[in-house]
Amino acid sequence: MRDCFVAALLEIARQNRRVLLMTGDLGFGVLDSFARELPLQFLNAGVAEQNMTGMAAGLALEGRTVFTYSIANFPTLRCLEQLRNDVCYHEANVKVVAIGGGFSYGALGMSHHATEDIAILRALPGISVHAPCDEVETSAITSLLVTQDGPSYLRLDKSKLAPLQDADEFRPGRLRLLRSGRHAAIMVCGGIAGEAIKAAESLAREGIECAVVSVHTLKPIDAEGVLDIARRYPAVLTLEEHVLSGGLGSIVAEILVDSGIRPRAFARMALPDQYCSVVGTQEYLRAHRGLDALTVANRMKALLSTAC
Amino acid sequence: MIISTQQLANRIRRHAIHMTSSGKSSHVGSVLSMADIVAVLYGKILRKNPQDPRWPDRDRFLLSKGHAGAGVYAALAESGFMPLEKLRTHYQNGSDLSGHVSHKDVPGVELSTGSLGHGLPVACGMAKAALLDGRTHRVFCVLSDGECDEGSNWEAALFAAHHKLRNLVAIIDYNKIQSLASVAETLALEPFADKWKSFGWEVINVDGHDHSALIAALEPRVGSDRPLVTIAHTIKGKGVSFMEGSVLWHYRSPQGDEFKAALRELEAGEKPDA
C-alpha cells in the first residue's frame, strides 16, 4: 500500500505543483524518486513531528496541499495537539499519512503498534479518516484527498488484499462490497480485510455465504450503507486491527443504536483494552489476539447460531 | 488620524486593563509586557491592509503567546481591522474574542493559539511557503520566554536555520517571569542569546520598551540568509507601577480600586506628542 500511495502521489504532484510531501525522516528508499523528481515539492522535516505538523498547517494556510508522512503513531499521536489546534481548527489542507496501521510493525514492539489511532483521530472535528484495504482503495483515496478541502488521515497497512475479481468498484465515501454473500456480512477496514476474505472462503465451504464489506472511509461514514447492511443480513460482524473502543465497531454500533435498526445478531472483533508486549509478524499478532481468519470464521458461526 | 507608536502602545495597555477587568480574565501583565512590541509592529513595521485583511502581500503576524490575545485584538481594532466597540465583547458569553487569540471571524488574526509552542512551527511553514513562491512579505512571531520551555520551538529553530528562512522574525517577550515564578527559578534560559546563535539564528538583544530600538531591530534586513530572533527585554506589567515585575499579575484581574489606579497611571502616562 505504501508504494502504491507514493506512486499515486507522485503522479498527482507532477500535475499539481501545490502538492507538497513532508516526511519526518522516514521512508528510506521509498520517497527517493519523489524527492529526486520534485525537489521543490518535498521536505524532510527531520525527526520533529510537532514542527512538521505545525509547518504543514502554515504551508497549507498559504495555499498548499500538504501530505505529512511517517510511520506508526509518529505523525498522529506524537503531534496530536498540532493536528487539533493548528490543522483541524484552521481547516488546513493537511493530509496525514501513517504507514504501518495496526500490527504492520508488529516485531518492532508496542511503540510501533498503531492500534488506537482511528478512535483518537476521528474525535477531531473536521478531519476525514480513511483505512483502505487494497491498492485500488489506496490510490483512489490518495487522489480524492487532493480534491477534497480540509484535513484528512490516511492509515496504510503493510498487509494488503490481493486483487479480487468480484469486488465492487471504488466509490468515494461509500462502502465497497469485496465479496458477496446472503447469510451474513463482515464489515472490515484496512488490510485485515484479507483475514475476512479467508474466513468467508472457509465459511463458504461449509455452505455459509458471507459477504465482506470494506469500510475504507470511517469518517464521514457511509451511514446509509451501514444501515442497508444491517437490514439485509441477520448476522453482522465488524473486524478491525484496532482497539475495541472508538474504532470501526464502535462507529457501526453508534449508527445502529442511533437509528434503532439492528441485525438479529451483531458482534465486534477488535483488540482488547490492553497493550501488546508480545512481538511478531502482523499475521502472528493477529492470531495471537484472535483476529485471524479461523477465529473470525468461528465467531461468525457462533453469531449465526444466535441469529436463527 | 495617524497616531504615534507610543500612543498606540498606551491605548493597547488601556484597552487591556478594560478588557481583562470587565471579563475578569487573566494575563494582563503579559499584555502590558508586550504592548510596545505589538504597537511598533502594527504602527510601523507590518505591511498590512485593514480593508483587505487577506491581502497576499501582507506581512504575517502570529502571536504564539496566545494568552496575551487581548493586546492583539486591541492593536487590530486601533488599526481599523474591527470596530473598537467589539473589544467590549472580549471574554464575554457568545463573543468571538476568546481569552487566547482566535482567528475565527476576527479579521487580521492569522493563527489561533493558546497552547504554547505552536506559533513558531506554523510561522516556519508560512515563511517557507513565501520563499518557495518568491514572495517578499515577512513572517513575524511573538513568543513568551516561558514558552521557550516547549521543545517544539527548538524543532522549529533547527528547521528555520537549516532552511535559511531569512524572511522569518521571532520576537521573544523576555520579561523573565512565567506562570508561577521567575524564568531563572523555573527553567533557566540563560545564556539565551547564545542558544539561538548556536542554532544558527541572527540574534538582536533590544530593550523591548524602547520604540526606536525596536524599530531599528525589526526593519527589513538586507544580505542575511538567516532567520532573526529579537530578544526583547521587557518588564512584566509595564506601565502600571504596582503590576511591574510581579508574578501576581500573570493571573490576577484588575478590579475596583486597582482597575481605577491602573487606568489613572496609564492616562497620566500618555504622551500625545511622543
Helicity range of chain B: 25-40%
Can you identify the CATH superfamily of chain B?
A: Thiamin diphosphate (ThDP)-binding fold, Pyr/PP domains
| Uncertain regions spanning at least 5 consecutive residues of chain B | none
Q: In angstroms, what separates the terminal alpha carbons of chain A? A: 39 Å
Q: What do the pLDDT scores of chain B average to?
A: 95
Mean pLDDT rating of chain A: 97
Shape of chain B: globular
Tally of strands of chain B: 5
Instruction: Label the CATH architecture of the largest domain in chain A.
Output: 3-Layer(aba) Sandwich
> Helicity range of the residues of chain A?
25-40%
Strand order of the largest sheet of chain A: 2-1-3-4-6-5-10
**Low-confidence parts of chain A:** none
* Rg calculated over all Cα atoms of chain B: 17 Å
Total domain count of chain B: 1
Q: Name the CATH architecture of chain B.
A: 3-Layer(aba) Sandwich
Helix run count of chain B: 9
Percentage of residues in DSSP E strands of chain B: 5-15%
Query: In terms of structural class, how would the helical and strand content of chain A be classed?
Result: alpha/beta
| Biggest beta sheet attributes of chain B | 5 strands, parallel
Report how far apart the termini of chain B are: 15 Å
Topology of chain A as a string of helices (H) and strands (E): HEHEHEHEHEHEEEHEEHEHEHH
What features would you describe in this structure?
The complex is a heterodimer of chains A (308) and B (274). Chain A is of the alpha/beta class and 308 residues long. Chain A has helices spanning 2-15, 32-37, 49-61, 80-88, 117-122, 135-147, 193-205, 223-232, 248-259, 282-288, 293-307; strands at 19-23, 42-44, 65-71, 94-99, 128-130, 152-156, 176-179, 184-188, 210-214, 217-219, 235-243, 265-271. Chain A has two domains: 2-156, Thiamin diphosphate (ThDP)-binding fold, Pyr/PP domains (Rossmann fold); 176-307, 3-Layer(aba) Sandwich (Rossmann fold). A seven-stranded mixed β-sheet of chain A has the order 2-1-3-4-6-5-10, sandwiched between helices. In chain A, strands 7-9-8-11-12 form a five-stranded mixed β-sheet, with helices on both faces. The model of chain B has no long low-confidence stretch (mean pLDDT 95). In chain B, helix 1 (5-22) crosses helix 3 (69-78) and helix 4 (119-132) runs parallel beside helix 5 (151-162). Chain B has a five-stranded parallel β-sheet with strand order 1-2-3-5-4, sandwiched between helices. Chain B has helices at residues 5-22, 28-45, 69-78, 119-132, 151-162, 183-186, 192-198, 211-218, 256-269, and strands at residues 60-63, 139-144, 168-174, 202-207, 228-233. The longest helix of chain B is centred in the first third of the chain and has 18 residues, at 5-22. Chain B has one domain (5-269): 3-Layer(aba) Sandwich (Rossmann fold), CATH 3.40.50.970. The A-B interface holds A 40, 43, 45-46, 48, 50-64, 81-82, 85-86, 89-90 and B 103, 110-115, 117-118, 120-130, 132-133, 151-152, 155-156, 158-159, 162.
